[in-house]
Specification:
Order of helices and strands: HEEEHEHE
Structural class: alpha+beta
Strand order of the largest sheet: 1-4-5-2-3
Number of helices: 3
Largest sheet: 5 strands, mixed
Radius of gyration: 19 Å
């Protein structure tokens, strides 16, 4: 009877929850809403994905995987500097099967997630103010 209790205890210790904060320090507007602070027109869309790696049960990120920064970087790559913001931003984090296996094998010391960002790239109408 000790083995099922031990297995349940190990399973409980190997699970976790997390909060990922998406910091953004850029000069453009990034919003999950439908509009920017001024009237704007749609220039195009972005859809990008990046892996996020963490050490020690998610306490130490090893790379910058901010979904907001990732959205701006993708927009610059596709549209140059010819946009003022991104609306309809959606950021999704997911841990795939490989990430779960790696985290179990390393007992949580190393973990990885995929961060996906998408949104509408927008330009202010009437030029810069």
């Amino acid at each position: 009877m000790k083995h099922p209790i031990l297995a349940a205890g190990l399973l409980l210790l190997s699970t976790s929850c997390y909060t990922m904060v998406h910091d953004y320090g850029g000069s453009r507007e990034i919003t999950p809403g439908t509009t920017l602070s001024r009237p704007s027109e749609n220039v195009g869309t972005i859809n990008t994905s990046k892996n996020a790696y963490f050490l020690f049960w998610g306490l130490l990120p090893t790379n910058d995987a901010s979904g907001a920064t990732q959205a701006e970087t993708a927009a610059i790559a596709d549209y140059g500097e010819n946009f003022d913001g991104i609306s309809h931003v959606r950021i999704h984090e997911e841990q795939g099967a490989l990430g779960v296996i790696v985290e179990i094998i390393t007992l949580g010391i190393f973990s990885m997630y995929t961060v996906e960002s998408e949104g509408q790239v927008r330009r202010f109408q009437g030029g810069d103010a």
